[in-house]
Amino acid sequence: MISANDLSPAELAALLHFHADAGVEWLLEEEAIDRFAEFEAMKAARRPATAAQQESPVAGERQISPRPNAAARPAPAERATSGPQPAIPDGEAVQQARFVAESARSLGELKTAIEAFNGCNLKHSARSTIFADGDAESGIMVIGSAPSAEDDREGTPFSGKSGQLFDKMLASIGLTRSSVLLTQVIPWRPPGNRAPSAAEMDICRPFIERQIALAEPRVILLLGNFSARFFFGENDTIHGLRGRWREIAVAEHVIPAIASLHPQDLLTAPVNKRLAWNDLLAFQARLKSLSLLRN
């Protein structure tokens, strides 16, 4: 087996890119880490101290013995904490996220604050923090769902093949990604592209709402099922939510918004491109009526 010490920097970089493209998200450490035991220990630490002072089981009551190999597992507290430990989503993390978001007075300050925020589990498994990109003065905001693997790897929203299709969608109505403000509902990619949990959504909500409040867009395009459900508060599919203008209320702002299919949806089912085209035409018409479409 070839050792990493025998590879050049260029060869190491190529190897890492190969693993990333193959879907590898975690690297093995020198010693095995029991994440389940670590999670249970963290939950136990949050319980009230009185829980440890409960009375012993009554005589004759059967007690559950620990697993035979439990003693061989290293206790989480005995390991060195070389990096940030995963945070458990709770009300305190939501309050912290709200405080951090409301304290930001510009998009630049908000970006710095989100990158320093450690109260969401998603950040500890993501490679990049995805933040708004493009023209914040355009009055046009496009919001996708959660970052994809390509977004996480590149550090920008709408990357990879779906990003290439997204660029074509914008070009079809006279826009470019540099002429609008692009962002995602969730700033960190969920592991394996799973759907964010309710607790993770609650923690991330102040960040996307603050981005909208600071950018003050005059119109919003939502792409994808998750994004539409997040803002419209409904559980219908994107086919039931798309194509109709609604209003999003954020802070003191009420912004007209329309939902459409995400570019990834169109790559998976190209037959739906005609539906997306109709939505884009409706979006283009609204831009023209607001004098936001630059020739």
From TrEMBL:
InterPro entries on file: UDG_Type-4/5, Ura-DNA_glyco_family4, Uracil-DNA_glycosylase-like, Uracil-DNA_glycosylase-like_sf
A Pfam cross-reference name: UDG
Enzyme Commission code(s) on record: 3.2.2.27
UniProt keyword Ion transport, yes or no: no
Domain of life (superkingdom): Bacteria
Keywords assigned by UniProt, alphabetized: 4Fe-4S, DNA damage, DNA repair, Hydrolase, Iron, Iron-sulfur, Metal-binding, Nucleotidyltransferase, Transferase
Renumbered residue ranges of the record's region Disordered: 47-90
SMART domains on file: UDG (SM00986), UreE_C (SM00987)
Reactions the enzyme catalyzes: Hydrolyzes single-stranded DNA or mismatched double-stranded DNA and polynucleotides, releasing free uracil
GO MF terms held by the record: 4 iron, 4 sulfur cluster binding; metal ion binding; nucleotidyltransferase activity; uracil DNA N-glycosylase activity
Sequence ranges of Low complexity compositional bias: 66-80
Residue ranges of domain Uracil-DNA glycosylase-like in the record: 131-281
One of the protein's GO biological processes: DNA repair
Family assignment from sequence similarity: Belongs to the uracil-DNA glycosylase (UDG) superfamily. Type 4 (UDGa) family.
Protein name: Type-4 uracil-DNA glycosylase
Species in which this protein is naturally found: Rhizobium pisi
